[in-house]
Amino acid sequence: MSSKLDLLNSKKAEALMGGGEKRIESQHGKGKLTARERVELLMDEGSFEEIGMLAQHRSGNFGLERQKFLGDGVITGFGKVNGRLVYVFAQDFTVFGGSLAEIHAKKIVRIMDLSLQNGAPLIGLNDSGGARIQEGVVSLGGYADIFFKNTIASGVVPQISAIMGPCAGGAVYSPALTDFIYMVQDSSFMFVTGPNVVKTVTHEEVTSEELGGASTHSEKSGVAHFSVANDLACINDIKKLLQYVPQNCEEESPQYAYEATDEICLDLNSIIPENPNTPYDMKEVINHLVDKDSFYEVQDAYAENIVCGFAFLGGKSIGVVANQPAFLAGVLDNNASNKAGRFVRFCDSFNIPLLVLEDVPGFLPGTDQEWGGIIKNGAKLLYAFCEATVPRITVITRKAY
Ligand code: HXC
What we know:
Layout: H1 2-16, H2 21-29, H3 35-42, E1 49-51, E2 74-81, E3 84-91, H4 102-118, E4 122-126, H5 137-153, E5 159-163, E6 166-168, H6 173-177, E7 180-184, E8 189-191, H7 195-202, H8 208-212, H9 214-221, E9 226-228, H10 231-244, H11 268-271, H12 282-289, E10 296-298, E11 306-313, E12 316-323, H13 334-349, E13 354-360, H14 367-371, H15 374-387, E14 392-400
Parallel strand pairs: 3-4, 4-5, 5-7, 6-8, 7-9, 12-13, 13-14
Antiparallel strand pairs: 1-2, 2-3, 10-11, 11-12
Hexanoyl-coenzyme A binds at residues 23, 96-97, 99, 129-133, 140, 143, 166, 168-171.
C-alpha cells in the first residue's frame, strides 16, 4: 500500500511541474505566471480541489506517445473565491503550449458540467496555442463540445474568461461565447487568423499586438470588456467582478454591509449644466449616486458615449447604463447599442436591477451608421430593455430626444 501511495505522491509532484522547469522559466521570462500560480492566486487559500490532475492524452500521432504530461496541459477544479464556490480551468502553456486536444477538452467540459449542476460561476484562464496540431480533427471536436456547453451555460451561470497569453483560431470563440473577457496587456492576443495569414491573403502588414492585443480589443473591436496591466491585476479584477454577480440565474447577488446615511448630496445640483448642449461627465453623477467607490465600469474604453458598469446601491449590486454627454454628446450609435444591449441582457439574466441615466440627443444620423446596421443594432438595445424583467429605474437627467 505504501509503495502505491509513494507512486501517487510522486505522480502528483510530477504533475505540479507541468511542462518542466525550463518551460516554467520561459513562462516567467515573458512576465507571465504559470497556470498553477494563477489558480493559487485566484482561490481562497487551501480551498482548491483539483480534478483530473493525472489525466494524460491517449494519442500516438506524430510521436505523441513519447511525450506525455500529467494533466494534459490544463488545470481544472473548484474552490472558493471570497468564500463563494467557483469552477475554474487554467490552460498550462508549458505543456504543448496549452494547446487543446481530446483529453484537455474533456477536462474543461467536465468542469463546465459541474459548474452548471452546482450552479456556480465558471472561470476560464486561457493561455493556449489553439488546437493541438498532432491530434488533428479530434482537437477541433473538443472545441465544438466546449462551445456547446458555453451556450447551454449562457444566462444560467456567470462565465468569465481571461486571456493571459495567445488565443488564436477557433480558440477565440469559447471566450467570445462567455459573459466577460479580460485581456492582459502586452502578453495576450486574440485573432481568428494571425499576422502571417493576414499578410498572405490581404497583403496587410500588422503586428500581433495591433491585430489583436488588449488595447485593440478593448478600444477598437469591443471584444474585450477589461484590459489589465498584468496577471496579478487580472486575477484581482476577476475577484472584484465576482462580488457583483450571483452564483447563478436563480439566486440574487450578495448583500454587503452598508451604513445608511441621511446626508443629501448637494454636489448633484451643480454637475449637470442647464444648457442642454454643454457636456458634463456622467460618471461623476454615477459616483455620487452609488455606494462610495463601488462603480466598476465595463468596456470603459469602447463606445464611450454610453457608460455601463456594476455598482452597489445600499450594499446591493445594480447595473448602471448611462448616456455620456462628455463623449460624442452621448449619442446612440452602433457600438453603443451593442455594448449596452449585451450588458442589459447579462443583468436581466442574473437578477441585477438596472439604473438607467438618460441624457441623449438620439441616434447618430448618417450613412456610416445606417450602412453599419443601426436599425438592427439599435433594435438589440431596445429588445434587451423590453424583455428585461428585473426592476428598472430610469432618471432623465436632462433630455431624452
Ligand atoms: C501543439 C503547440 C501548439 C499547437 C504551440 N505548441 N502551439 N503544440 N499544437 N497548436 C507548442 C510548441 O511546439 C512549443 O513546444 C510550445 O508549445 C511553445 O510554443 P512556442 O512556439 O515555442 O511559443 P511562442 O514563441 O510563445 O509562440 C506561441 C504561439 C505559437 C504564437 C501560440 O506556438 C503558434 O503560432 N502556435 C501554433 C498556433 C496555431 O496554428 N494553432 C492552431 C490554430 S487553429 P515545445 O515542446 O518546444 O515547448 C485552431 C482551430 C480551432 O485552433 C477551430 C475550432 C472550431
